[in-house]
Each structure stands twice: as C-alpha cells, then as structure tokens.
Design a protein that fits this description.
Radius of gyration: 10 Å
Structural class: alpha+beta
Distance between the termini: 6 Å
Largest sheet: 2 strands, antiparallel
Number of strands: 4
Shape: globular
Oligomer: single chain
Order of helices and strands: EHEEHE
Strand order of the largest sheet: 1-4
Number of helices: 2
C-alpha cells in the first residue's frame, strides 16, 4: 500500500494522527509529517493507514 499526501488540501486537523500515531504527526506548524520512509506503508501498519485515509476530513490522504 502506498499513501499519497496532498499537502495543499491538508489543513492540519490531526485526525490521521489520532487514528495512526505511528504513521502520521502534525508538527508545531500544523503540517503533516509522515513517519515512514517513502510512500510505501509497512505491511504491519496498512490497516492503520487505511483508517487514517478514511477519516481525513479534507481527503488529503489517498491510498493505492
């Protein structure tokens, strides 16, 4: 699974961080920080990533 972040859409709500804190963090500037290398989600974190994609209120996250 790959995750794509649309930084222009992200408004820093932090819902993804609440659902998958091991994968996403909102920094002090309100910007989304991805906590894994590249755009490929580790296999043991894919369920959490899918949950974060589902709850993003502005559809800034996409999974493939």
């Amino acid at each position: 699974m790959k995750i794509f972040v649309d930084a222009q859409r992200c408004e820093g709500h932090g819902v993804c961080e609440e659902v998958a804190p091991e994968l996403f963090r909102i920094d002090d500037e309100g910007d989304l920080v991805v906590l894994f290398d590249g755009d490929e989600v580790p296999p043991d974190r894919q369920e959490a990533a899918a949950g974060a994609v589902r709850v993003c209120p502005v559809n800034a996250l996409r999974a493939r």
